[in-house]
Amino acid sequence: MKTEKIGIVGSGLIGRAWSMLFTSAGYQVMLYDILPDQLSAALEYIDIELHRLEEHGLLRGHLTAEQQFKCLRTTSDLKELSRKAIFIQECIPERIEWKRSLYQQLDDILEEQTIVSSSTSTFMPSLFTEGLRHCHNMLVSHPLNPPYYIPLVEIVPAPWTSPQAVEFTRQLMLEIQQKPVTLKREVLGFATNRIQYAILNEIWHLVDKDILTVRDIDTVMNEGLGLRYAFLGPMETAHLNAEGIRDYIQRFGGEIHKVSETYDAIPKMEPGPTLDKIAEQCEEMVPRDMLATRRKERDAFLTKLSALKKEF
Ligand code: NAD
User: Fold this and answer.
1) What is the rounded end-to-end Cα distance, in angstroms, of the chain?
2) What is the whole-number distance in angstroms between the Cα of residue 33 and the centre of ligand 1?
3) What is the pTM of this model?
4) Which tens digit of pLDDT belongs to each residue from 128-144?
5) Which of 17, 96, 136, 229 lies in the 20 to 30 Å Cα band around 312?
6) Cα 301 from Cα 134, distance rounded (Å)
7) How far is CA 225 from CA 61, 118, 196, 260, in A?
8) At a CB cut-off of 8 Å and minimum separation 6, what does 248 contact?
9) Ligand 1 pocket by C-beta < 6 Å: which residues?
């Protein structure tokens, strides 16, 4: 077990997952929330979850569930949370005015060594750290849901984040067995959502024009592209699909351009006939009262997949 302290702000879905990831490496984790009930619910959830993972042989790290749970404390006092913390991971709801207010409060009490990192999925770090005294120690570490099973973390610095804060965060993510990628500078949507939204835009058009059903689109991914992408990225895939990437572009670059020229303009995703069609087909595939069951299945599949990936 370690003596260093990690603070987690916000004990919802993502705060709980980060708490488990940091305790899995033996860090002393302190969890803070404005709602005391949330804190007790989080403790109960984490206790059950750690023991369930242990029972199924899926617990991360070398410590037992009990040892990991013992690394966890809660507080309703932000000052207590930040005292002697080497790193704080913020996980409050995605409301810019809430984030700004929290970062302002933290700025007033932070110690010099503490790095503060946001789980935000959509806000560039400059939006809520500009002008703060400790802005050089603030950045984004964006996880993917569920973080315990999907290891990617996008580290996104603001223009004023110090290289030391970025490197410290990257090393910490590696230590807790996550897989960080570091953006050289902030960009809207970071990397994952920029790529994901390009896919969703095209899917919207394909369904709108009645070229494919929702189910068939998912089959294109989960029985086709996704199978490769689970262990090779698109770039290595291309590199292997010819005699190297130069050969691939020489052979297919023209075709890629020809197809790309037929893409429609970026769709406005809003309520209307296209969304009605997509929603009807999605709900046929997974009825709304089955979403929770399907999420559990997703987590179980992802766990098996990550175990399999360790063999590569
Ligand atoms: P959530 O609603 O499940 O939990 C938020 C928690 O923050 C609640 O317990 C709430 O009581 C607490 N809170 C609210 N204001 C607070 C404050 N000022 N100080 C301390 N605690 C406060 O939210 P979530 O889904 O865990 O999302 C948290 C962050 O993670 C968001 O920025 C979100 O964009 C990001 N994120 C979410 C997902 C996801 O799929 N849910 C994935 C990646 C990143």
Assistant:
1) 29
2) 10
3) 0.94
4) 999 999 999 999 999 99
5) 17
6) 41
7) 31, 31, 13, 18
8) 238, 239, 241, 242
9) 9-15, 32-35, 38, 91-94, 98, 102, 119-121, 142-143, 145
